[in-house]
Amino acid sequence: KQWYQRRVRATRKVTVKEQQEWKIPPCISNWKNPRGYTIPLDKRLAADGRGLQDNTINDNFAKFAEALYIADRKAREAVDMRANIEKAMAAKEKEEQEQKLRLIAQKAREERS
């Protein structure tokens, strides 16, 4: 009984400022909005918690990205070189085929005359 009496005496009226300080905002979800409220973007982002985190990029990621870029560039160069070689070989083969046809045509002309 004494504890209760002390407790009651210790309580006081809460001011409006204190009420607002202790006010807990309603939960905002980016996935569910059953009542269809319009929720401002800043509230959605604040609820997400992205603004509270520090974005730090690891040095190893920069090295990894650079290695990927170099590997991609070398692979592209290799593909270009291979395509050029194949194109040159096809042109050479076509030239040889035309040369054979010229020889056959020339022999046919010589046989006629």
Strands, helices and their partners?
Elements: H1 2-10, H2 16-22, H3 41-48, H4 59-112
Structural category is mainly alpha
Outline the biggest β-sheet: none
**Number of helical regions:** 4
Give the low-pLDDT segments: none
Helix coverage percent? 55-70%
Describe it.
The chain is mainly α and 113 residues long. The chain is 69% helix and 0% strand. It is built from four helices and no strands. The chain has helices spanning 2-10, 16-22, 41-48, 59-112. The radius of gyration is 41 Å and the shape is rod-shaped. The model has no long low-confidence stretch (mean pLDDT 84).
Short synopsis of the structure:
With 113 residues, the chain is mainly alpha-helical. It has 4 helices and no strands.
Name the descriptors.
4 helices; 113 residues; mainly alpha
